[in-house]
Amino acid sequence: MFDVEKIRADFPALKQLINEQPLVYLDSAATTQKPQAVIAATEQFYARNNANVHRGRHTLSEQATLAYEQARATVAAFFNITANELVWTKGATEAINLVTNGLSEQLDNQSTIVISALEHHANIVPWQQLAKRTGATLLTLPLQQNGRFNVEQCVNFIEQHKPTVLAITHASNALGNITPLETILHAAKQQHTITLVDGAQAALHLQPNLQQLGCDFYVFSAHKMLGPTGLGGLYGRYERLNSLAVYQTGGEMIETVTLTETTFRQAPAKFESGTPNIAAVIAFSAAIKYLVSLDKTNVYTHEQAIFNYAVEKLQLIDGITIYSDINNNIGTLCFNYKDEHPFDIATLLDGYGVAVRSGHHCAQPLMQHLGINGSVRASFAFYNNHKDVDLFIAALQECIALLD
Ligand code: PMP
Q: In what residue span(s) does the Aminotransferase class V domain sit (predicted)?
């Protein structure tokens, strides 16, 4: 049984009033709220266990190193990968940049990079830069007018262009649409394409088994998975990962240094220069343990029930246009009301304690593709309940009455 009220009690931020109204937090796609276990792990580290890792021979440092590496193993197990295939970064953005920089020497003007119009800017701009540096051709996978992939079209495109690299999102941050990855990745594999999947949005909701998924690289952000900000991860199939050129250089990632030459360690160490965000890594493993303690199927079923309830209610309001694929979604509702500015709706909703996002959602090419300047985005997580939806819809109706 999934007891959402018991779960909500684990998230202190959900208990507060915003503008004298109970907070209705519908911005989990931007960042999720944090369970008490994550807050406690952060405090515990700084209060008692604080020391640098991989350096000292003293007890605290050894304990910190152990906790840091255990956290890597916990998160790796969650994704069904091995610990040495997981690199800590400061977010999904840095993880993608690590890959695009690391591939610079492997690509040239005969190479083809394929991205899609569904991507967050973080999975567009680094590839544009890589194409500029190497002379590679940058192409986009066909996306239907409604923001959905036609699998057959995608497969044909991949067979025709035989890309060197394919970078694609697991779920759209703006629409919540889930990408039909299985077939697309299979087609890419047939062409020996290097594949990177942006899991920043999907990882919390779909809890992917990365070995099964079969991509070469997968990136995620801890803060969108109940964990702290300033931390993310890069999964890389080991040979692929180790074949990337070093990204940032400095201490910790080296084997030997002379004043003129350096040799580097193997992955993941060679990509983790300097002192890492130790507290965040440890707190993130607390987040993952918390998530794993909730049954995956129950979590997903609850999220889908809340999402469907919200869709049902929103569809009853005249003048609402929904852009999300409501049948294939991680729980993100992208919509507009008539031609009202999404910013005005989000601002008015905030007055009722309802937190949503408005704007282009760092997905300007997608907005252009959909023929809009921006939208309102209400994104749900497993800690949302039916009351959140009722309060959101009631507040939206009042906002609309003010705007009409
Ligand atoms: N990709 C997607 C799909 C995202 O939603 C985000 C964050 N909005 C990112 C990448 C970048 O993540 P971060 O800002 O945590 O690096």
A: 24-392
Report ipTM (2 d.p.): 0.99
Query: Do residues 268 and 253 make contact, with C-beta atoms less than 8 angstroms apart?
Result: no
Ligand 1 nearest-atom number relative to CA 229 = 15
Whether pTM > 0.90 for this model: the answer is yes
Q: Return the SS3 of 235.
A: strand
At 57 the pLDDT is: 87
The whole-angstrom separation of Cα 344 and Cα 338 is 12
Substitution site in 198, 234, 284, 329 for ligand 1 pocket (most atoms within 8 Å of beta carbon): 198
For 116, the enclosing helix (H) or strand (E) is strand 112-116
User: Which token pair is 351?
Assistant: 């007055």
Reported as a single tens digit per residue, the pLDDT across 378-393 is 999 999 999 999 999 9
123 Cβ below 6 A of ligand 1: yes
Average pLDDT (346-361) is: 97
Give which of 201, 197, 198, 199 is closest to 215, Cα–Cα.
197
Counting ligand 1 atoms within 8 A of each CB, the residue from 93, 218, 361 with the most, and so the one to mutate, is 93
> Active-site residue numbers?
362
